[in-house]
Each structure stands twice: as C-alpha cells, then as structure tokens.
Design a protein that fits this description.
2 strands; globular; 269 residues; 13 helices; mainly alpha
Length: 269
C-alpha cells in the first residue's frame, strides 16, 4: 500500500496546484473554523440517523455472542478509514458558506451534481476496499493470536483480550497495523476529496489520480501539521465513540468542516 503511495507521488507531473507550508496554529485555526461552520449549519441529526442503525446492528450481534464480536473495535476504528467519504456533504456545506451562498443541511446532497462525482465515487470505492482489507487483516490477526477462543460473552472476550499475553499481542500489533492503514488514508484523502469537489464546482474538474498526488504532496510538505491533524481526528473520533457513539454525530461534521478549511490553507491555484 505504501509503495503505491510513493509511486503515485514520484509520478506526479507538474500541476497548477501550489502547496503551502503551514504550522500547527493553522491546524487549530482550521478546527476552530470547522466548529463555526457546524454551529452555523448543524447536521448532527443526519449523522445520528446514519450512525445508530449501524451501531445497533453491531451491538446486537455482539450481545448475541456471534463471530462479529472480535471485529467490534476494528469496525469502529475503521470508521476513520471511510470518514472522508462520510463527510463529503459537509465539505459542500463549508464550500457554500465560504462563497456566501445559501446553506441548509439539504445542500449536503448537492455533491451528487458535481462534475467530479465520478472521480469522487472512484475514490470512495478505494476507501471502501481499504476498509474491507483492514477488516480481513484484523480477522487474520485475531485468528493468529487468540483465534482458538469462540467468544460467548463480552466479559469473557474482554478477559481473554486484556488478561493474556496473546490478547495483549493482538492489541499492540492490531493497533500498529491499524495506524498504517490510517496513515495511508490520511495521505491519500486529506486533500483529494475537497479538491475534487472544489475544482468541479469551479468548472475545472481534475481526476482522482491528480487529487491523490496533490494530497500526498501536501502531507509530505507539512509532516508535523498533518501528523497533528491525524492525531486530532483519532482523538475526536475516539471521544465521540465513548458516550454511546452519540458524540460521532458532532465529531464527524466538525472534522469534515475543518478538513475543508485545512485544504484551503494548504492548496491554492
């Protein structure tokens, strides 16, 4: 996966997009602006309607003691891998507010009319594939460590996970591998989705490969600020998951709005 990332970056032809060097203060400012956008156009009800059926299905299977139980954490943490796709409509709201256009939560659906919608769907499909691969890798790690245990209850599973050397190995290795997946998604998408939407709206649509190359360039030009941004994303998604996942209905929109402003700070044409 990472070899593909570096290959795309090295193959990058000259582009009109200019990459700016930013500091950590710019990252915090983007987050503040994202919060302001969220307050101006609350969208938490939309995300509650999306999140809770998914969480309910996971919880029902876990309580029933089915084979999905070992994948609860990979599924929840893997949400960060598809988060850029889930926040696509949020980018559109920030774009409209920036332009002084009327903004309503309904405008989040306008992205389907974007001239770059085909490229957006292609990039989204790539994220879904990465998500599935992550689940397969997580399942393989579980099988290689404590896979001989068929969980009968959440408590029994937790005791095995936190109370045995095999369980601790799974925690350490699993999170390390998950970090690599998250790093790849950060490099590939932190700029690419907003760029596709922005260029399409301006009548200057670019393809997904160009957007990905620009995103990689942006991360490589700003390693520390982008590392901080990745940490902020991880922490907010984790905190949003703790109170029965209701916090995700706020964390995801705020991060989506903030990503748009981060894109604006890093890329100009």
């Amino acid at each position: 996966m990472m070899d593909t990332v570096w290959t795309l970056e090295r193959a990058s032809p000259p582009e009109r997009a200019s990459i700016h060097h930013i500091g950590t203060a710019d990252v915090w400012d983007a987050l503040r602006r994202g919060w302001d956008d969220f307050l101006a156009t609350p969208t938490q009800l939309i995300f509650l309607a999306i999140i809770y059926p998914i969480i309910g299905l996971i919880a029902a299977n876990a309580m029933a003691g089915r084979a999905l139980m070992p994948l609860i954490w990979p599924v929840i943490s893997g949400f960060a891998l598809v988060g850029p796709l889930a926040a696509l409509g949020i980018y559109e709201l920030s774009r409209r507010r920036e332009k002084g256009l009327p903004v309503s939560w309904v405008n989040a659906l306008d992205v389907r009319h974007s001239p770059a919608f085909g490229s957006i769907l292609g990039l989204g499909a790539m994220l879904l594939v990465l998500f599935v691969v992550w689940l397969l890798v997580a399942e393989a790690l579980y099988a290689a460590t404590i896979g001989d245990m068929q969980p009968t209850s959440i408590r029994a599973f937790a005791d095995r996970l936190f109370g045995t050397p095999e369980g601790l190995t799974l925690i350490v290795v699993g999170n390390a591998v998950g970090f690599l997946f998250a790093l790849a998604v950060l490099m590939l998408t932190v700029i690419s989705f907003p760029m596709l939407l922005d260029r399409g709206a301006e009548g200057r649509a670019v393809d997904a490969a160009t957007a990905i190359r620009t995103s990689i360039r942006a991360v490589r030009a700003n390693p520390l600020p982008m590392a901080l941004w990745g940490l902020i994303v991880g922490v907010l998604l984790l905190l949003g998951s703790l109170p029965l996942f209701v916090g995700l209905a706020v964390a995801v929109p705020v991060l989506g709005h903030a990503t748009w402003h981060l894109y604006r700070k890093v890329v100009t044409y």
